[in-house]
């Protein structure tokens, strides 16, 4: 039974470690998306044209 308590304690410490690493990665900009905004402007025009074409066909 004491092994279960030990394993629970170790798993909590590991989970806290991963959570701290995740928070550090987010604050340091690891998950910032620098690529999509520069490419999005190339595809926005196609989305607008296709939605206008659909509305012209329906109306």
TrEMBL record:
Coiled-coil segments on the chain, per record: none
State which residue ranges cross the membrane.
Answer: 6-26
Determine if Transmembrane helix is one of this entry's keywords. Answer: yes
* Superkingdom of origin organism: Bacteria
Q: Does the keyword S-adenosyl-L-methionine apply?
A: no
Sorted alphabetically, the keyword list is: Membrane, Transmembrane, Transmembrane helix
Q: Entry's PANTHER family?
A: FIXS PROTEIN
Q: What is this protein called?
A: Cbb3-type cytochrome oxidase assembly protein CcoS
Q: What is the lineage of its organism?
A: Bacteria, Pseudomonadati, Bacteroidota, Flavobacteriia, Flavobacteriales
Quick one: which gene encodes this? ccoS
